[in-house]
């Protein structure tokens, strides 16, 4: 047979590869081996050991590979202490714990500040994890205060937690975003600790509102859904960080998959598991063969558009949890493929000046704010995902699995 160069390349690409696990898989289906994940985490720990002692604020985004900061924590302030807690968990190094406690402390004023919905992002990876790992009651009590602050944003007419805008003003008063699914676990924690059902009941109601209005038939979601803030009547889908109201911002989809799976775990309500599954099946059906999400799954540039590695790290965590929730190994295999893609193509290893671990993140593409950057939530969820694979009992203690 006379094989052209093109035919040879195509058949080589389809030839099964032997991965570190010894599994035979097709090209693009390699799963991250434990050794590869261990190597990536060691790289992250070494980076953190070098960079963290010089950091006294909250990393927000990199500019030319160096962290820039947001002094009051912005919405990201939980991820820096969270990463340090996970570094301590993995290494046992007391220096990481001291840095994590100091970073936790800097977040304290935010627990009483109802300026936005981000209290779960701020206090779950930081104060809740600190309590779960150390038993410190100060962290528990502060996290419960933060949950009570979040309840101030409850809109009973629309049965949702308002994402943005100062309370008492019309600014974004009827705006719900998919990201809020990640803030609900703080409410579950408050009910777990206090026995007061109000927190979890509001979390369930918000998740049901999200489920009813965001989910499209194919399992994709918009970033935003607007309601009339006075009557609670549905207005329609919208976007801020996605391509359009009818597109699917990949990080938002990942927040939803992770958040609905968590809500299933906290409540046992199968509707949340089914929603997470539908959303995951959509994301997996449109993931490119490199297993790193494009910033919006419906970008007109398709596979050629820029990536968001943070969407991949969050998705890997959600899928690992969903695999346990559903008993389906397929979600775990896909999570390991995503981790293989992240570790193989997105680490900052090629640059000595980089201060973060994961490159190729996108913060806000429509605003042209933060493309090909590192993001503190990219690093945090990469650590979390790797620990979910390598040290499941320890990470379960840290985040309450
Ligand atoms: N929660 C905001 C974001 O994911 O960019």
Automatic annotation (TrEMBL):
Annotated signal peptide: 1-26
InterPro entries from the UniProt entry: 6-hairpin_glycosidase_sf, 6hp_glycosidase-like_sf, TAT_signal, UG_Glycosaminoglycan_Hydrolase
KW Metal-binding (keyword) present: no
MF annotations from Gene Ontology: chondroitin hydrolase activity
Keyword Signal: yes
Keywords: Hydrolase, Signal
Top-level taxon in the UniProt lineage: Bacteria
Protein name as it appears in the record: Unsaturated chondroitin disaccharide hydrolase
Lineage start: Bacteria, Bacillati, Actinomycetota, Actinomycetes, Pseudonocardiales
PANTHER family to which the protein is assigned, alphabetical: HYDROLASE, PUTATIVE (AFU_ORTHOLOGUE AFUA_7G05090)-RELATED
GO BP annotation list: polysaccharide catabolic process
Organism from which the protein derives: Lentzea xinjiangensis
Gene3D superfamilies reported for this sequence: 1.50.10.10
Family, per entry: Belongs to the glycosyl hydrolase 88 family.
């Amino acid at each position: 047979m006379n094989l052209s160069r093109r035919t040879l390349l195509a058949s080589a690409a389809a030839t099964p590869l032997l991965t570190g696990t010894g599994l035979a898989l097709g090209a693009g289906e390699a799963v991250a081996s434990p050794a590869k994940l261990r190597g990536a985490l060691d790289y992250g720990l070494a980076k953190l050991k070098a960079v963290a002692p010089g950091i006294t604020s909250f990393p927000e985004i990199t500019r030319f590979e160096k962290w820039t900061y947001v002094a009051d924590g912005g919405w990201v302030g939980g991820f820096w202490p969270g990463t340090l807690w996970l570094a301590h968990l993995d290494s046992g190094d007391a220096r990481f714990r001291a840095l994590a406690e100091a970073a936790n402390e800097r977040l304290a004023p935010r627990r009483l500040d109802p300026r936005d919905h981000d209290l779960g992002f701020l206090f779950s990876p930081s104060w809740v994890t600190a309590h779960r790992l150390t038993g410190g009651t100060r962290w528990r009590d502060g996290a419960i205060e933060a949950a009570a602050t979040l309840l101030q944003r409850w809109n009973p007419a629309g049965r949702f937690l308002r994402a943005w805008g100062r309370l008492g003003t019309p600014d974004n008063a009827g705006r719900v975003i998919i990201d809020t699914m990640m803030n609900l676990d703080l409410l579950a924690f408050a009910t777990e600790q206090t026995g007061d059902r109000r927190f979890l009941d509001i979390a369930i109601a918000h998740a049901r509102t999200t489920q009813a209005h965001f989910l499209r038939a194919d399992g994709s979601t918009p970033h935003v859904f607007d309601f009339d803030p006075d009557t609670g009547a549905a207005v329609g889908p919208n976007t801020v960080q996605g391509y359009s109201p009818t597109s699917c911002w990949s990080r938002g989809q990942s927040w939803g998959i992770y958040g609905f799976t968590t809500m299933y775990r906290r409540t046992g309500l199968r509707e949340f598991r089914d929603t997470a599954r539908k959303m995951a099946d959509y994301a997996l059906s449109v993931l490119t063969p490199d297993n790193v999400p494009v910033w919006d799954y419906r970008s007109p540039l398709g596979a050629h558009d820029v990536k968001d590695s943070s969407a991949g790290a969050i998705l890997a965590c959600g899928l690992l949890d969903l695999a346990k929730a559903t008993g389906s190994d397929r979600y775990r295999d896909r999570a390991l493929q995503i981790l293989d893609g992240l570790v193989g193509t997105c680490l900052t290893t090629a640059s000595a000046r980089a201060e973060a671990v994961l490159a190729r993140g996108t913060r806000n593409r429509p605003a042209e704010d933060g493309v090909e950057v590192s993001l503190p939530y990219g690093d945090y969820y990469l650590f979390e995902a790797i620990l979910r694979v390598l040290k499941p009992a320890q990470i379960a203690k840290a985040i309450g699995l």
